Amino acid sequence: MNQTIALWDRITGEIRSQVNEAGLNLFLNSISPRGIEGESFILEAQNEICKEWIERRYRLLITKILQESTPPLKCVFVTRMKRGPHDRPQQLGLPAIAETPVMPAPAPTEKARPVPKGESGFNSKYTFETFVVGKSNQFAHAISQAVSKNLGTMYNPVFIYGGVGLGKTHLMQAIGQEVLRQNPKARVAYLSSEAFTNDFIESITVKRMSEFRAKYRKKDLLLIDDVQFFAGKEAVVDEFFHTFNELFQNKKQIVLTSDSPPKKINKLEERLVSRFEMGIVADIQPPDLEMRVAILKRAAADCVIRVPDEILMYLAEHVTDNIRVLEGAFNRVVAYAGVVQRPVDRDLVDHILKDFLRENTPGRITISWIQKRVAQYYDIPEAEMSSKRRSQNLVLPRQVAMRLAQILTDASLSQIGEAFGGRDHTTVMHACEKIQKLVKSDPEFQQEFERIARFVDPQGRR
């Protein structure tokens, strides 16, 4: 038992040096040591998806450590046996959900009052209760909740930025709906910058600017989406500038969203940039694997069709763009399963994802696209494709990407090497030959390589 613990400490110590805390938690929640049997070190995975993920990412590293032990051991991966309904598992069936701060917002302690109907235009699905919180959005979520309870006094303005489909609009609408639940008489306006612009133009046309100003400057809470589209519209910017100032001076709350931080919005006047940066600026990053699984678990809980945990993990690994795309893929899988009356299994998901990913794949495969997709598949930073680090869990993905670049592009070995951190053509040749040999000699790796190739090129252009 002491040797098992010592080896496990060595393995986790090596992995700790290569990944962040979230990555380490994901590993620890995916697999655990069962013990040593004869010449084998037995590692027990939560399920088949976890087993495949650990094998493809850490198999070489673990094997190297075990070969250096006395006596040398070989690594055997097994899947955890199913327990009875009264047996308490040591870890959850899905990796990292229980041990990391990825969680749905807590349910309200009392039944929430419905948001009053009116001009707010809120989507009832976009509340704090339905927002999944993770490291990528934790700060923005906390600020949004605080603002909804203390309008105009704590953080003003609040500026939330991030890419498409990451939850900015969800948080903004959650703020508005929470304020109206607490105070149905609160004066709240929620609209896009385009709607504000159109309303402004129409008010000028019909000569009702006084009504326009009263409409927006008498609010307790003003929420405006996509303020980057104000850039370059001088008259609109001037009107919004004065609206902003009056609300701020009267301690009324302002919440704004954009796809970029204020200073990086092209052609946005400096006076607006300085106003936007007066309060709190919070960003939302793309969701990591743990958070993507949590989002899918919430969607699955509301679904009439049963979706196994293994399939949720499989989807989360393959659809990495943003939350909107992830939910779209899930909805498509569930809808198709309902129409054809089939259970949701790996074959069905592969069939759906092939079409889904084709729509999101560039017409021409490039080396940078291959690097991006292979890095996503192996769950490593894309920058490692061109780095000089030679950790076991980085070398194989890099070599796989080089081989795919040789197959899927017209680039020469020298051009491929240049794209992979300035490596020479002999390094690329060695990598491609190694992958070719592995494909021929290892049936499991052959299947893995084919899966990666489909992930990179759903249209099968090889």
UniProtKB/TrEMBL annotation:
Matching entries from InterPro entries are given as: AAA+_ATPase, Chromosome_initiator_DnaA, Chromosome_initiator_DnaA-like, Chromosome_initiator_DnaA_CS, DnaA_C, DnaA_dom, DnaA_N_dom, DnaA_N_sf
Q: Which UniProt keywords apply?
A: ATP-binding, Cytoplasm, DNA replication, DNA-binding, Lipid-binding, Nucleotide-binding
GO MF terms, alphabetically ordered: ATP binding; DNA replication origin binding; lipid binding
Where does the UniProt annotation locate this protein? Cytoplasm
Q: Which residues form the AAA+ ATPase domain?
A: 154-286
Spell out the Pfam families in the cross-references: Bac_DnaA, Bac_DnaA_C, DnaA_N
Cite the PROSITE patterns for this sequence: DNAA (PS01008)
Where is the segment annotated Domain I, interacts with DnaA modulators?
A: 1-99
| Gene Ontology CC terms | cytoplasm; plasma membrane
SMART domains, A to Z: AAA (SM00382), Bac_DnaA_C (SM00760)
**Chief location category:** cytoplasm
- Tell me the segments the record calls region Domain III, AAA+ region: 121-337
Chromosomal replication initiator DnaA C-terminal domain location, by residue?
Answer: 366-435
Gene Ontology biological process terms, A to Z: DNA replication initiation; regulation of DNA replication
Record's domain comment? Answer: Domain I is involved in oligomerization and binding regulators, domain II is flexibile and of varying length in different bacteria, domain III forms the AAA+ region, while domain IV binds dsDNA.
UniProt record similarity statement: Belongs to the DnaA family.
Q: What does this protein do?
A: Plays an essential role in the initiation and regulation of chromosomal replication. ATP-DnaA binds to the origin of replication (oriC) to initiate formation of the DNA replication initiation complex once per cell cycle. Binds the DnaA box (a 9 base pair repeat at the origin) and separates the double-stranded (ds)DNA. Forms a right-handed helical filament on oriC DNA; dsDNA binds to the exterior of the filament while single-stranded (ss)DNA is stabiized in the filament's interior.
Q: How does it assemble?
A: Oligomerizes as a right-handed, spiral filament on DNA at oriC.
Output this protein's name.
Chromosomal replication initiator protein DnaA
